[in-house]
Amino acid sequence: MPHRIVALFLSLFACAWLGTAQAAEQGPGSKLNDHAALAGLHEAKGLFLIDINDPNRVAHVLKVVGMTRKGLSEQGVKPHLIVVFVGPAVAFLTKDRRGIGYMQERAVSQVQHEIDGLAHEGVPVEACGIAMKGMDVSPKDLIPAVKPVGNGFISVIAYQAKGYSLVPVY
User: What CATH code would you report for 44-169?
Assistant: First the structure.
């Protein structure tokens, strides 16, 4: 019985010591990183499938896509990212913003601003033609940074076959 108590004490001490060491490594002055996950990678391919009907959430997700691209780059991994819109979210991609309510105007503007920033960084953005038809959006209505495609799901399937990892955002 005393051996078990000593073993338990030593185990708890070791856990506490390791936790303290990790906290010191990632303390207030240190920056979190993804070195373990990225070990051995020189390139990473990510495919963000966006199917959200809330422009505030879409703007946030697009901002995180940009942060993901930047984070990969800063950690020495060349990012290859693509964004594909399906569903009603394609309505947020139009020049005239027809059908967008007054309360959503600012968020849709932010969505389009984030898309322009991603395009500037070389991240392609696609809009599903099936969803566009369902939302009565013509390819000519899309903002310039968005490329219309026939079927967003076909794009997703094809990019995955080319080695892109799917990041579904619903």
Answer: 3.40.1260.10
Under 8 Å between Cβ of 156 and 166: yes
| Each residue's pLDDT tens digit, 18-49 | 344 444 455 566 789 999 999 999 999 999 99
The rounded radius of gyration (Å) of the Cα atoms in the chain is 22
As beta bridge partners, residue 2 has none
Tokens of 99: 């059908």
Contact 169, 64 (CB under 8 A): no
Question: How many angstroms separate the CA atoms of 14 and 139, rounded?
Answer: 61
In one letter, which amino acid is 99? G
Residue among 149, 146, 150 at smallest CA distance from 125: 146
**130-149 pLDDT, tens per residue?**
999 999 999 999 999 999 99
Distance, in Å, from the CA atom of 58 to the CA atom of 52, rounded to the nearest integer, reads 7
Domain boundaries along the sequence of the chain:
44-169
